[in-house]
Amino acid sequence: MRKPVHSIEMQPRAVGVRCPKARASLEQAVMRAKAADMAGKDCVKVAVRVRPFNKRERDAGSRCVISMTSNTITIQDPRNGQNPRSFCFDYAYWSHSGFTRDRSGLYVAEEPGGRYADQGSVFQDLGEVILENALQGYNATLLAYGQTGSGKSYSMVGYGANKGLVPTLCDRLFQAIRTNEDSRQCQVFFSMLEIYNEQVADLLSRASRCPGGLRVREEQQRGFYVEGLRTVPCENASQVEQLMEQGTRTRTTAATHMNANSSRSHMLIIVQLKQIFCKESITKQSNIYLVDLAGSERQRASGSEADRLKEGTAINLSLTTLGHVISALADAAVGKKVVHIPYRDSVLTKLLQSALGGNSRTVMIATLSPADICYEESMSTLRYAERAKRIQNRPVVNESPTERLVKELKAENARLMQRLSRLGHEGRRAEDNTMELRRLLTHNELQIRAIQTLWEQHLQEALKDCELQYASITQERRMMQMYPYILNINEDAQLSGVVKHFIQDGDWDIGLADSLTRSISIKGLGIQEQHAVFSNVQRRVSLSPLAGSKVIVNGTIISQKTELQHLDRLILGSNSTYLFIGYPSERGGEDWSRYDYDYFQSELAAAEGIHIPSLCEEPAQGDSMASTGQTDPSLLAVFYDYIKLMPMVSEANQMSQELHKGVEFKLEIKNLALSDSKGHDLEKEIAVRVTSLENKQVWLWSKAKFVNRKFLMEELYQQHIADLKGEGAGGEPLPRDRDPFWDPLEPLLLGTAHLWLQSLAFRIALEEQLEVLGSEGTEEAILQAKLLPCTTNGLPLGEDDILIDPSELLRRRLDFQLVLDQCCGLRWVKQAKNRGVQIGFRMFDSAQPIYTPAVWHNVNPLLDQRVHFTSLYTSQTLLDHLQTSALVLELWGLQEGCRELLSSMEGVRMSPEGCFIIDHAETLETAKTVDSGSELSCSLSALQQDVQELRSSNAALRTENNTLREQLNTARNESGRGPSERRGSSLRPSCDAEFARALKVFYHSMTSVRGQLQRLRRHRPSEDSDMLSLRQFVDEQTGLLRDFSELLEQSVSSLKQDVAAIVRRKRERSGIWP
């Protein structure tokens, strides 16, 4: 369409058209061409669907953060409800609430005309559009996008009576074919493939998977296509359903054998529709792409996500490239200049090139979880869909004169027959011509026969396969009614329940070996050749693990023969999960669907003491979530991250063992027992501790880094397996810098201690022995620290410099020293003598953290670190900070070969005496105020007057204090007089003496408080405590904390009352004393 437009626009410039009529006709032609160009464009239609809460979200009391009005979706940040975000799409489906389940198992709206969108409503809008476009001859694409578990597979495939878009579309397609069979002949071909880690696998292939997967090639006419992909002809919807079951079974088996994560794979179903219109002698061919994309989880940033091997993994390449393609196309649609659209950067985008910006009519359905704990993923999905709706495609009807070709071949054959008959009368002179004509005739007949019989041959082959598959399914259903069996459970609900292993009478070995006559062959990480033995004797089934094998039943590792009960949960090896189904007589009306993948992992986590009640039953004091009875979403996110990573950690440990890497992985909850400078709990995250078993080196990986490395480990492991089978390329060992099991050593944060700063507000020295607590509450060390108020030269202040009211520090200089004397009982160094430590801290608004020099190979190292801080102009902000906050002292662990932490001086201000200046923002603000010119002169004069008044008041107070000291000395000198004289002189006691007595009482009460604190520190559960003992410990700890809080509050309150009384009496007497 564009070439005629360009040629028309250039003609006036080339020949200089001056005739008004000619110019008008040219302009009209240009407008018509542009209108035709715009008419050929078709924007991607985007639908959004909100699913109900799943079981784990209901159990956790999750809140719904998504609302819907018409086609507008509004999402609210659970941590900040002030700024909700709204998005508008072509279709919006509310499937979160307002539904019920009828007798047939179909989910329908509770009330007629309710807002609930069922599967039929979704198909009516989206599926009908896809079907109509395909019947018209257009290519059509349906993309399902969203995080794992958000409802993609339910919308695409469905389950039970709630059929999804794909089976309903196929059913309606064959209905349309039967309706129009008089006017056209239709042929339907079905293909099913999976893309995992940039490798394409044919899910309908009878042969085993080839190494590296199928190749994606390109032709000028066809575009990108998968070479060798099996296309199966179908003549009814039941054949399609059987092929989908076959593909799902292949996908499940391959995921188990290859240790692949199905949530990271893309599934493509390709339905080719060929319509032959006999009267018009035209063939229309449409390709329908039905794409279930991989889970779109975004990794939570933690500040240390950078991974030197991040670019080495291809597991997320397709989804990442798809995002880049969509962004580039969206920018192009709004007129931005786009140099390159990266279709060729991944397998998925190559195959979807026509669907995105090409010859296709495309629909995307984005599925959302409405739970508060999924806010970040849901927001990411909405932004993705927002960009996709701006993409413009250029669909055209795919017509070809196939029937015309057959007619032309037949007509040519008729002409050849006539020529042959004429040549027969001419004798031998035409013998050579006759042979050539017969060769052409034979070639044409073969072409005609191939065109007419290819479809029938393929169809007959497909029918034979369907008959064999039907016989296998019938045999399986018959055995299900006769014997117990184990049923596979997969992270992807669509792949669960696909594989069944029957346990017939007698003993059955289960493991990798399949050569034994009575064996059940399973594959997976950690599965031994002979892993365990099932015994079925007198209708009782038991499981006996063999030596060296790992078997878990209902969350507990077993080492001896165990009798199985109906619906017991089995985990064999690292993560091969199965549900045991007993004899038919044992099966009641239980809902087996509750035993999903999350149930298995939650059961394992509970056995380790990690479950939602343990994380959430003791909310922090003052927590807003506690007052509303709601569970903190961050805690729920940690719990779900934990159970999600558990099987991955188990698999990583197994791969490390088989590859002889000598590395152990262990899950940790980061910041479980740590708090910030205000005493508020830090946000908890999942981390993975990596330990070298040989030299005790330790790394701490974030969740994102571990997940990335896990996929690289899988690639390395698959190469190892291929080498063992003789199928790999062999080659040199992997260099250490490319080994996913290794990383350069970095300093590790071992724990923190809190040194409260309140004493500085009164200019009172403080000396403490601080307990350094690790991330999970373990005692890492004892740190001896001091806070010493001092002069500008670093000399300590005396008792006379103690302040009664902290506000006396305002706008005055404050100097103090932090002294770190010694660190005792370093658990980090006890574990390995070749380690060292450093202490790091950041005081108030310091631009950079300060680190002590590293100390090595000592369990009780002397630190002898003294740092002088000064505030030149103490602000109210600093004063509030001193009274309410603590200095967080971080204990960092060092290992041999690890870099030491250095204090940076960038942005740090120093005083002339060499002190670190804090509160410099207030100092700068004051300088700006002084330099602001005439506009602030009045304010400056007022401030100067206030300062002068304060100085005068201060001088008067000093004079008064001198008088009081003289009177006190006089009273002491007269202590030798008679009782009556002493009684008379004691009528006016010194205020300083009263204040000293009040402080003495306060410090005496603080001794009790310190004792209570020491009892809290020593009060710990025993290592072998069970759940009941732990609950008793929590109750006792709560009581001790309550007593500590009350005792501390009484001491402080008493001191405040005494000081207030002293000040009041002092003011009363000031008018009498000279």
UniProtKB/TrEMBL annotation:
<dbReference type="GO" id="GO:0005524">
    <property type="term" value="F:ATP binding"/>
</dbReference>
<dbReference type="InterPro" id="IPR036961">
    <property type="entry name" value="Kinesin_motor_dom_sf"/>
</dbReference>
<keyword id="KW-0813">Transport</keyword>
<dbReference type="GO" id="GO:0003774">
    <property type="term" value="F:cytoskeletal motor activity"/>
</dbReference>
<dbReference type="Pfam" id="PF00225">
    <property type="entry name" value="Kinesin"/>
</dbReference>
<comment type="function">
    <text>Microtubule-dependent motor protein required for mitochondrion morphology and transport of mitochondria in neuronal cells.</text>
</comment>
<dbReference type="InterPro" id="IPR008984">
    <property type="entry name" value="SMAD_FHA_dom_sf"/>
</dbReference>
<keyword id="KW-0067">ATP-binding</keyword>
<dbReference type="GO" id="GO:0031966">
    <property type="term" value="C:mitochondrial membrane"/>
</dbReference>
<feature type="binding site">
    <location>
        <begin position="146"/>
        <end position="153"/>
    </location>
    <ligand>
        <name>ATP</name>
    </ligand>
</feature>
<keyword id="KW-0496">Mitochondrion</keyword>
<protein>
    <recommendedName>
        <fullName>Kinesin-like protein 6</fullName>
    </recommendedName>
</protein>
<keyword id="KW-0472">Membrane</keyword>
<feature type="region of interest" description="Disordered">
    <location>
        <begin position="970"/>
        <end position="989"/>
    </location>
</feature>
<dbReference type="InterPro" id="IPR027417">
    <property type="entry name" value="P-loop_NTPase"/>
</dbReference>
<keyword id="KW-0547">Nucleotide-binding</keyword>
<dbReference type="InterPro" id="IPR001752">
    <property type="entry name" value="Kinesin_motor_dom"/>
</dbReference>
<keyword id="KW-0505">Motor protein</keyword>
<keyword id="KW-0175">Coiled coil</keyword>
<feature type="domain" description="Kinesin motor">
    <location>
        <begin position="43"/>
        <end position="391"/>
    </location>
</feature>
<comment type="similarity">
    <text>Belongs to the TRAFAC class myosin-kinesin ATPase superfamily. Kinesin family.</text>
</comment>
